[in-house]
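Note on ligand handling. Small-molecule inputs were canonicalized before submission; formal charges were left as drawn, and no protonation-state enumeration was performed. Where a ligand contained multiple stereocentres, the stereochemistry in the source SMILES was retained. For 2-acetamido-2-deoxy-beta-D-glucopyranose, this procedure yielded the string shown in the input block below.
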Amino acid sequence: MAILLLLLLSLALSAPAAAGDGLAPAVAARPGCPTRCGAVDVPFPFGVGEQCALAKAHTRYPFKLDCLSVAGVSKPFYKGIEVTNISLSDGKAWMKMNMSKNCYNQSTGAMEGNRAHVDFTGTPFWISNVDNKIVVIGCQTFAYLQINNVLTGCVSTCNKDSIPVNVKCSGAGCCQVDFPNGTWYYSTYFSESYNTSQIWRSSPCSYITVIETTAFNFYTTYLNSTVFYDTYKGLAPVSLDWIITMDSCDEAKNTTSYACVSDRSTCVNDPKGGYRCSCSHGFQGNPYMKNGCTAL
Ligand SMILES: *[C@@H]1O[C@H](CO)[C@@H](O)[C@H](O)[C@H]1NC(C)=O
Ligand SMILES: *[C@@H]1O[C@H](CO)[C@@H](O)[C@H](O)[C@H]1NC(C)=O
Ligand SMILES: *[C@@H]1O[C@H](CO)[C@@H](O)[C@H](O)[C@H]1NC(C)=O
Ligand SMILES: *[C@@H]1O[C@H](CO)[C@@H](O)[C@H](O)[C@H]1NC(C)=O
Ligand SMILES: *[C@@H]1O[C@H](CO)[C@@H](O)[C@H](O)[C@H]1NC(C)=O
Ligand SMILES: *[C@@H]1O[C@H](CO)[C@@H](O)[C@H](O)[C@H]1NC(C)=O
Ligand SMILES: *[C@@H]1O[C@H](CO)[C@@H](O)[C@H](O)[C@H]1NC(C)=O
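Structure output:
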């Protein structure tokens, strides 16, 4: 009985999605390469290990993921950052990025915390300006991202004219601003002239993070407890757009490394720069593999 169940299970796991069944298209990896790492599908051009990933000029193995065991669970990582999902059809990936906090330490009388430095320069990943927000939480807080010489952030306060309300992030206990368009990197900062040294009994900590808009709601308990940081374990889900190279489709089509190799694939320009591939209308699958796109 157990053997039969196992057999059925492995059949269910290995069966490719049949054409036209409305399921997600089958994940295609290079022959001999794993198609997933733990619970996450790893479709080509991504791959577990160098041989399984698309190599790109100028960068070594930019699509290479490492499949690591964390507390007994296999998870894919990109340069040390956990990847939770990869979508071929819309050219997106989701990763977990460090949140930053700044807390008053009663015994030292100083503000303590951590900052985040995220850098995807030279990788296939753009940090999505459409899917993510910059969120700042705190009662006496001015926090911002620095990108080149541009600071992007906001001020969050709590007082009788600025009373925090659940699910409302507009300056009272929480503020948010758009993530800048076309950015590969950022560092987080807390302004020193705004701090919680006078209000630490009720609200000792401030936070700033980039986070996927749909994954975040503000709750007033975030101001007087560690629930916010703990809920996400200090790692915020962030949505990224990935591209094959920074070439436009017209440029890429002229190169021997043009990645849209399925004969039913088309090239898509990312508005921020670079190209990726898509199966033509009426087809689905993996446009980065020969014969990877099949009829719907
Ligand atoms: C988060 O920050 C810690 C401490 O600075 C660092 O060791 C780690 O690599 C960072 N993780 C990510 C995913 O950036
Ligand atoms: C991964 O992303 C795709 C595309 O947005 C979505 O349909 C799918 O449900 C996601 N998978 C997981 C495990 O979140
Ligand atoms: C406050 O600082 C002390 C002394 O450096 C340290 O032992 C303690 O862990 C800090 N408290 C917190 C909450 O970080
Ligand atoms: C908090 O900010 C005030 C100015 O608003 C500054 O004088 C003070 O030194 C800061 N305290 C800490 C612990 O950073
Ligand atoms: C935090 O504040 C909320 C109201 O904003 C209150 O209901 C809750 O009891 C407070 N929690 C703590 C630990 O003080
Ligand atoms: C692509 O190659 C063709 C023929 O060699 C050339 O005419 C065209 O200008 C090239 N396009 C780009 C964008 O390099
Ligand atoms: C981002 O910038 C690109 C090019 O500069 C532009 O085409 C695109 O519309 C912008 N997207 C948004 C959402 O502002």
